[in-house]
Model the fold of this input.
Amino acid sequence: MNFFIFFAIFSVQCGVTIVQCLGINACGTAGIINGLTLLASQEGNRATNIGVGIFMIAIGVLFATLALVDFIMLIRIHRIYRTTGASFAKAQQEFAVTSLKNPVVQQVAVDAAGRAAQDAWAGRGQF
Done:
């Protein structure tokens, strides 16, 4: 279960790092796109825009380096995981078995099944 959760979380981390590298304006990150936009901007103090724009591009390049390292580490860890004889199917099975032993998950499943049965019973009476 630990590997399954690790791969899911680390894949999301790689995605977030790529978004931070790009520096999309709506995401609120300082990255390459926002840095280039600031360099091209004619508003405000031009010297400040150039300095901050270069700094934002440097941050974007560092995030790009981090995203590359994240991806390389994900591949290396996956190779180690595969040498243990494990597979994605085994990880899913282990995750399902471990999750079903969790009392909270059991209670949610019972509640969902009970709600579905009540809804089905109520739906039959309306026809």
About this structure: The chain has a mean pLDDT of 83.
